[in-house]
Specification:
By secondary structure, the chain is an alpha+beta fold. It contains two helices and six strands; from the N terminus they run E-H-E-E-E-H-E-E.
């Protein structure tokens, strides 16, 4: 199932660029959380990321994002963390991954790509991946991409 007109909107978002092997994404997520926690910042939303490299590349370049509680942000430049008081991307198409993310992510990426082709849509953003929880506490992933 692919949903049109999806959007991603958060306030007070910290972000950082990472390069890693896809199987090492947990290391990048942990590093990002550790840096923010060590500087006294508190995550209040789901962590999400954008895939800036070719999704099939051996080494992935991704920008990790985390909404934080604090609305004032000062951190040393060497940490290479950016801050936006508002983050908003709209006109996305989105699909959900409820099973094993590692197994299903490539398949879902190609579903989005084929959907864009069939609908004659043009990709305008990188792929976004959001980790979310249902009301029952189950974790799932929303994968989306901006289109024209």
């Amino acid at each position: 199932m692919i949903v049109e007109n999806h959007r991603i909107t958060y306030r007070n978002v910290a972000s950082k660029l990472y390069n890693f092997l896809p199987v090492e994404i947990d290391i990048a997520l942990t590093d990002f959380n550790t840096i923010l926690n060590n500087h006294g910042y508190h995550g209040v939303g789901p962590i999400f990321f954008s895939i800036l490299s070719d999704p099939t590349a051996e080494v992935m370049t991704a920008q990790l994002f985390l909404p934080i509680k604090e609305d004032l942000f000062t951190i040393s430049k060497e940490e290479e963390i950016e801050f936006s008081s508002y983050f908003h991307v709209n006109q996305l198409i989105m699909t959900r991954i409820k099973g094993n993310y590692e197994e299903e992510s490539q398949m879902k990426y190609w579903e989005l790509s084929q959907y864009m082709g069939k609908k004659e849509m043009i990709q305008k953003t990188p792929v976004f991946v959001e980790y979310k929880k249902s009301h029952a506490g189950d974790t799932y992933v929303e994968m989306s991409v901006g289109v024209l």
